[in-house]
Design goal:
202 residues; mainly beta; Jelly Rolls; eight-stranded antiparallel sheet; 1 helix; 15 strands; Pentraxin family member
Length: 202
Amino acid sequence: DLYRKVFVFRKDPNDAYVVLMAKLEQPLQNFTVCLRSYTDLTRPHSLFSYATKAQDNEILLFKPKPGEYRFYVGGNFVTFRIPEGHRDWEHVCASWESATGIAGFWFNGKPWPRKGLQKGYTVGAEAAILLGQEQDAFGGGFDVYNSFSGELADVYLWDTELSPDKMRAAYQSLRLPPAILAWKSLSYEVKGDVVVKPRLRE
């Protein structure tokens, strides 16, 4: 249970990452991924990387520069532009639905205009799921200049598209439905220079 805790990625650039173990019974037709990050990086960095042997960017949350997020499904991506913040915690949720190809994006509890992405696609189940690095090969192929440094928390992955009230609940750290990956019952393995510490502030 990592409630009120964070992963601190201490170095920039670094070769550290966290492997997340998920029990995926079947491929994903829908999903929602949420996380909270805190960094002063201005270069590109990866937050959440879900790779299969067939596709290294099966699901990817990537920040190419301040004020912009890229959300990948099956190797294709859409871009969501956000107001440049005051270097504070940023909470993002990205959702996707195969039937409509609708990609949703919530930033600090507010929805952004939805976009179209990979209609009819299926996300593979045999996955390597990493925090802090972008995979260019299954479980590896890192570029240190896409690595994350800073603090990560509240990582979740659901095999459904969350309702708007649950999206807001994720932002407020309230009760959430059972998840494939849940911060309060996370199965993970730290590789390299990552430290678990209490969260300093909300």
